[in-house]
Design brief:
The complex is a heterodimer. By secondary structure, chain A is mainly alpha-helical. Chain A contains ten helices and two strands; from the N terminus they run αββααααααααα. In chain A, strands 1-2 form a two-stranded antiparallel ribbon. In chain A, strand 1 and strand 2 form a beta hairpin. Chain A starts with about 20 loop residues before the first helix and ends in a 9-residue tail after the last helix. The relative contact order of chain A is 0.14. The N terminus of chain A is likely disordered. Chain B has ten helices and nine strands. Chain B has two domains: about 200 residues, P-loop containing nucleotide triphosphate hydrolases (Rossmann fold, 3-Layer(aba) Sandwich); about 60 residues, no CATH class. In chain B, helix 5 packs across helix 6 and helix 8 crosses helix 9. Classes of the chains: A mainly alpha, B alpha/beta. At the A-B interface, helix 7 and helix 8 of A face strand 5, helix 4 and helix 6 of B.
Amino acid sequence: MTVASPIIGAGRPVAAPTIRGTVSRRRRAAGAVVLLGLVVLVWEGAKWLGGDPWRIHGTVLGIRVDYEHFPAFNWRIADDLSLPHVWDVIRAFVDPAQRNGPPLGLILAGQALFTFREALTGFALGGLLGLGLGILFVHSRLAERALVPYVVASQTIPILAISPIIVVATQAGWLSVAIISAYLTFFPVTIGALRGLRAADPRAFELLRSYAASGRQVLRQLRLPASVPYLFAAFRIAAAASVIGAIIGELPSGISDGLGSAILNYNQYYILGPEKLWATIIACSFVGIAFVGLVRLAESLLTRGRYRPVDR
Amino acid sequence: MNAAAGSASPHVVETHGVGKVFETGDAAVTALDGIDLTIRSGEFVSLIGPSGCGKSTLLRIIGDLTDPSGGELRVNGKSARQARLDRDYGMVFQAPVLMDWRNVASNIELPLEVMGFPREDRARRSAALVKLVELEGFEGKHPWQLSGGMQQRVAIARALAFDPKLLLMDEPFGALDEMTRERMNLEVMRIWRETGTTIVFVTHSIPEAVFLSTRVVVMSARPGRISRVVDVDLPQPRTVDTREEPRYFSLVTTVREALRAHLVDTEPLDDLGDARIRAEGIS
């Protein structure tokens, strides 16, 4: 909410999270690509210096290549077991996971979709719970004082310890995984909502008081719209957390359709194919990035032109 | 002009011995003491005084945004609370306090939405008010796309949207530059003439108070008291030429001397007290 002070830069006590312009978005995308290139460079550079020997015998783009490379050092962290070649990881997506089976990439895509569904459901549940708690807390000091410490404490309990209990207690299959995901999601949303629902200018509250507005009208006309930039900042964190929650929730649940079971599986048979675990890790991060991207997209669709744009 | 508009009581605001004490932990600050003030319908009354004289606090008490510590207060013949619940007044703050997510027209319609006016009525009123404050063509703009003066005009239009009989203005042009301020003064004059609204106007500008008001209430600080009431008998309607009349200058001098007489008593100014009042006032 604006203080809308005519003095530029004054009267904006909090740097509210806001929408960024297309220029910086393009620049950020370019930055991500450059960073990815740097990671590959360091990765393969380490293997070049201290990895296992490798050679290429065959044709690349119709040219015959015969090349052998013997690294100068022998670092355990850079050997083919710890750090498979980037091209081996990429090839793992294309190669069948089991003999005569579909390619691993296809299997991982299906598992990613399954995990994404759990994460999305968890995100929705946790988001609603978080927003509901935020609304409760700004209207009841007593509830805030009584419950906020437990909200914070809930996040100090390792999710790994609590997820088997939830799985056993709810017996709800993928839905219990969504509940575990919601357990991680609701926290940032609660905190963001608590902050955002109080973010409006105090005088705006007085303005509505002068209209004899009801509490519900203050919520609808002032608190909620003023909290939107804060909520979306929280949603972004929550989106990433909900994917983590879904993957971890799958581990004790015995569900074999998601990325969690893929991690368990390829972890167990790591020696037989380290690149498969790495491919799974990439698939996991892809789900998280896609989810956060969706939240960003929703944010820009909902807020563009309606909220003060700030580039910083 | 703007004589009592046939209401039961011609007194829009009536205070007897109104006082306000702010408890600030270690000490109590008397912001207002023994305020007796009667404002008739159609008047334009300015409250002027040094920082910390409680003029804003008095305005907020009239608007039931702050409770008085003592004394009696009637607004439109009712308690201040009832007057607020009956939506008897419109408020304009020093900052425009516009909603970023609403455009100009929709900001003006905010009180109408809260008060449950039908949609067509809202649109009709906001269109008329956009015209009144001369913002045609800016209906679809959002607050951050407007200048400070334009934002404040939107705030004034919003305060007038539901035809309140009383307009409370708390240093509405305090943050504007001198030229914008003088133009806004003319605009408020015109709006006051056209709508017949009673206006209570807090300012620390002497020329502004004299130019706008039918009466100037001069206040002194620590404790905040009314030290003098100056009747401004300048002819209506007031125009740019009003500021060049000898009578205008002599009234400005009268108000200035009334302010100075009490400034001497209260030196040195304790700025902490004022800061306390403002801190309390905003919360």
